[in-house]
Amino acid sequence: MISAVAITYNESQNIERYIKSLSFADEIIIVDSHSTDNTVSLAESLGAKVIQRTFENFSDQKNFALSLAKHDWVTFFDLDELINSSLADEIISTVKNEPKFQAYEVKRNFHFMGKRIKHSGFQTDKVARLFNKNYCHYNSNLVHETLICEGSTGVLNQPLEHYGYQGFDHYNNKLTQYSDLQAKDLYQKNVRPNLYHFLFKPWYKFVQNYVFRLGFLDGKEGFILCYVNAFAVFKRYIKLWLMYRHLN
User: Which residues of 42-56 are buried (b: 16+ CB within 10 A; e: fewer)?
Assistant: First the structure.
């Protein structure tokens, strides 16, 4: 028995495909952050159980969603990830045949500006998407939350397609949201920004992904991707600097 869980906000363009790809699950639970489009009505019309809850941060929202799952084994995919039939079959087979691990990661093929990105730091991208909820929970990070597993973790063979890019403004706005939450997290940890954070960290982020992780092989899309991700690091510390000066 498998529970499929997700968190949403204004995902009307993805929700139908997403729910249909989870037809193998015994229940589908959506925790929605008061979407202003028709995400909720679409999800309910397709048989998903929808709970409305105000969004505080990703870890808090995901742990709440996880608490609603009836079954021990849970899938927790993002709405911009495509679960193909091969991956669905592997998930079913894994859960049925006495799983050897308490959590399983899935490799992701990232697509940006219409191109499959094979380098730029994404060549080793994999995330935990299938796990036993009795052994797992999300850490307290406000963004880029990590699944903590009190057990061992395996890797599924079948990858998923990750379509995180839905237009340049959409992608940039998403990075801005991440920068805001990361700045808040650093503020709570009493981290004070300095020239190292403003100058070195963004520069290193770009060099690491574009040079050392071969982003230049992804062409102009690779350059743009590495640049905007590096600039998001700069924005994180600008936001943090403004918070200390109460200028937000």
Answer: bbeebebebeeeeee
Strands (E), 9-122: 27-32, 49-52, 73-75, 81-82, 103-112, 115-117
Examine the pLDDT at 197 and tell me if it is beyond 80: yes
Tens digits of per-residue pLDDT, 75-131?
999 999 999 999 999 999 999 998 999 999 999 999 999 999 999 999 999 999 999
- Answer yes or no: do 61 and 141 share one domain: yes
Domain final residue, candidates 130, 147, 162: 162
- pTM score, two decimals? 0.90
Cα 128 to Cα 160: distance, rounded to the nearest angstrom: 12
What domain range includes position 193?
168-244
- Asked which of 89-98, 139-148, 193-202 is least confident by mean pLDDT, the reply is 139-148
Residue owning tokens 């019309």: 45
CA 145 to chain centre: 8
Give CA separation, 37 vs 12, 50, 57, 172, 177, in Å.
7, 14, 21, 20, 19
The amino acid that residue 2 corresponds to is: I
Residue 63 above 80 pLDDT?
yes
Question: How far apart are alpha carbons 150 and 136 in whole angstroms?
Answer: 6
